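User: Predict the full complex structure for these chains.
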Amino acid sequence: MPSIDIQDFHYAYPPLGRDEPEWVLRGVDLTVEAGSCVGVMGPTGVGKSTLCQAIVGIVPQLTGGIVRGRVTVLGMEARSTSVADLAQRVGMVFQDSESQLFNLTVEEEVAFGPENCGLPPEEIGDRVDWALATVGLIDDRHRSPYELSGGEKQRLAIAAVLSMSPEVLVLDEPTAHLDPRGKREIQSLVAGMARDSGRTIFVVEQDADWLAELVDRVVVLSGGRVALVGPPESILGDPETLLGLGVGPPQLSELAASLNRRLGTGFGFTRLDEAARQLKEDLAGAR
Amino acid sequence: MHAEAQSGTGLRLEAVDLTFAYPDRPPALSRVNLSVERGQYLALLGQNGAGKTTLAKHFNGLLRPSSGQVLVGGREAEGQGIGELAHQVGYVFQNPDHQIFAGTTREEIAFGPRNQGLTKAEIDERVDESLEAFGLVDQADMPPAMLGYGTRRKVALASVLAMRPEALILDEPTSGLDRRSVIELMVMLANYNHRGRTVIVITHDVRLVADYIPQCAVLQNGTLVAQGPARTVLSQADLIASTGLSLPPVGRLAQRVGMPDAELPLDVASFCMAYRSMRGMGMERDA
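Assistant: Here is the predicted structure of the two-chain assembly.
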């Protein structure tokens, strides 16, 4: 059974005044297998965040608006299962994750979710320790969330969701507003979670070079629908198509295309290891 | 773009032994010497907290030095009022909501020119040109606060450019923008600069600088650690690493295939050139 099953999903936010409803999503079809890591790309305004929020039930339960089609997560229909019930198995870190933080200490922030599920105290303590260790904040448990750096705040927001032990984790542009150091912290954390846990990860991201290293499948949204879906090597390895859809390709796949054009080579790579391997082989051949 | 058709004269910006400390804090800037020539296009590069924004805010009088001097157009900024500086040095905030306040997009853009004492006809002309140039004609009578994030960024930029400042400073203008919007923005800035005006972009994105910006200055912990042509400054891999910034993917690939650290290519075109000569040398050795 897929973790996330989206069928012909349409959504329009509540219209302002007497305007016609404006459809943000116009027939999204997508299935995500349990335990896989899927990266979602698309230009601004294409409905990436809306889709994330539909998976955790916020759209349409808290936003209103008009829905057609269905989103099923772990066998639960997202629009008719309460957001609170969904949140116990499906976690989401918002684009503006700082707005998710509101407790006085790092530890309280992470304990908040499990406490509200009425878990026994020992269980809560174990989960907090594990979540903080996973994101590398175990020594910061008594600090205030507000004195953390950008990368640390984002890691804390992830820990606060992880402590619910969700089977599905939705991340909406987790590195968009971080500096290079923060970005590296989050990238290696998410890569570790994708490798180890068997958890399904659904991550919206503009950094194609990072997605190329991380995900099993890439989805590109355009015009409120899924325009492309497939393994990263084929989707991200076609820079021209991506640019046509308003999505930035990995710099390495642009490089491969450019080298092929100028030098007549036959390179095809999207990831650093693969690129280094192919270039070294080519250089050895040239010598 | 009609609005930019008239050439500017540019403005020289200079910091001399500039030190600045917020009350009861260690200095955010220590003895910074930076000169940005008339009509120069410069990236101010560094990690979060390096002092980039603090330095830039001295050029439009939002901050005043604790010691040292700031010169705008050869005159000490200290003696010029914020209003006077604002006409010469346009500043676009990282967060558009820090500057957007008017009831309509048209009003937002008209605010600056009106404060410059232009006639109604001149104001209308500039507003129409800006709306056109930024593709905001359809949003002219909408409240800017209700527009999407990417569009609010455009309104913020359009309202500063409508004053046609001789120097323009933008704080992290590309964060959160998709690839197409980044390209549009960078083309617009290049045009603005080609008319002889000074442009400073604050960023932590080495790839952006390598791809688009000719000059660069690097700040680390409040100290200026490098300034010069971007190609020369950025190709020092050890400097980039020591400031916590990230090399673009092609730079990391260049390291992996053994290109010399002191002259790493950081964009696709220069990688292709370096690779061609690396390959050619191998063949010559054989022959």
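The two ends of chain B are 53 Å apart (CA to CA).
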